[in-house]
Amino acid sequence: MTPVETFKGKRVALFGLGGSGLATARALVAGGAQVAAWDDGEAGRLKAVAQGVALEDLAAADWSGFDALVLSPGVPLTHPEPHWTVLAAKAAGVEIIGDVELFCREREARAGGSPFIAITGTNGKSTTTALIAHILREAGRDVQLGGNIGVPILDLEPPSDERIHVIECSSFQIDLAPSLAPTIGVLINITPDHIDRHGTIENYAAIKERLVAAAEVALVGVDDACCHAIGARLVEAETPERRVVPVSGKRALDWGFYVEDRSVYFREQGHPPEEAELIGSLEGARALRGAHNAQNAAFAAAAAWECGLDDDEILSGLLSFPGLPHRMEEVRRIERALFVNDSKATNADAAEKALVSFTDIYWILGGRSKEGGVEPLRPHFSRIRKAYLIGEAADDFARTLEGALPFEHCGTLEAATTRAALDALAEGAPEPVVLLSPACASYDQFANFEARGDAFRGVVEGLPAVIAARKGGLT
């Protein structure tokens, strides 16, 4: 935990008692603050009481007595309309901040300038964050990994000169962190997202830009128009204390970090192409398949390089990265077949990344469909041997697949996985891939995509016995 001692003796309103909210309440109390915590949901309030967090109905509170409102990132700050606590705080002139801002103030007070890598982007930020942390740990560094991925930031060990904090930041968290100024800021990409919470794509992009605007080193993607424009603006404002470095996962750059032909390079400004430094090839990095992971790898290599790691240390970390659960996760091999859990692919755009990364695919898809269905994936149907349909979307998806590729209605994930495994091993492909990449939300049959992926993993672990029984002629 990082006790928030910068608020010692102050009275703080805290709204939102999910995981990060409870962690924030504990850290504030540990630092000596007086916390008035509340949540509109009874479940959150009960959890807080069980953990010894004092509750106070903020709707009946005297807001003039608060020094700050600490808002959980899931609570609307501006759109579709400000939450009632936001309106109360603004009326009383009370600042509104979040847990990342509390961390930034503690870092400045405890160990100003301690290593702090902050990562954001519309897609790939979790993988990039985990990959950076993995590379640094493999090289022997003291790393704290958290934020929007896994562990709340204030549940991590406190900042110190020898400890590197690697923190994923959502746009919601950035919006509540006015003093965010990391050692290394990473902005991977921007595509339209969370417009319901930010109003416009322009506002969403402006919030993302704030993560890199005050960074000592800003690693900024150039593979989309929004990030390219942000990078150009930051270069215009560049100072000796604040550098901007371009990063691409798609093409060679005049300078900066990039991936070309599945190899990661660094080219210094003003140097010819033949002097680009080869960091290493990604061919052996099985957890980093696909163009999207090439971009993630380029950013991770850049961050590690800026932390002082050499090429061999960076490449070793890239090749040994195990990947994140439910994101093209290689579960296991059974005989020739590879089983891949891509349950995080809850729409066609996400599923496309897996489909273009493999061939001879036995594709498990379906669930609660999102707008557009799987029609956008038609150009990749030639990679698929057969599809196995589950959940509510099965009939709609069948209409799309009709005449394009073989498919089977399976109903449940267990049935689909078993049928796909048996077909994959019965046919002649040298390395068939049984791929769960549903292109759907999970809520028709599972609580979330994690539960769906865990169920797939469980079925796969039991398949050797099923396959052995079939081979033995048993039913």
UniProtKB/TrEMBL annotation:
EC numbers: 6.3.2.9
Keywords, A to Z? Answer: ATP-binding, Cell cycle, Cell division, Cell shape, Cell wall biogenesis/degradation, Cytoplasm, Ligase, Nucleotide-binding, Peptidoglycan synthesis
What start and end residues bound the annotated signal peptide? Answer: none
Q: Any keyword Kinase?
A: no
- Mur ligase C-terminal domain ranges (all copies): 326-440
One GO molecular-function entry: ATP binding
| Keyword check for Nucleotide-binding | yes
Q: A GO term (biological process) for this protein?
A: cell wall organization
Which family is it part of? Belongs to the MurCDEF family.
State what protein this is by name: UDP-N-acetylmuramoylalanine--D-glutamate ligase
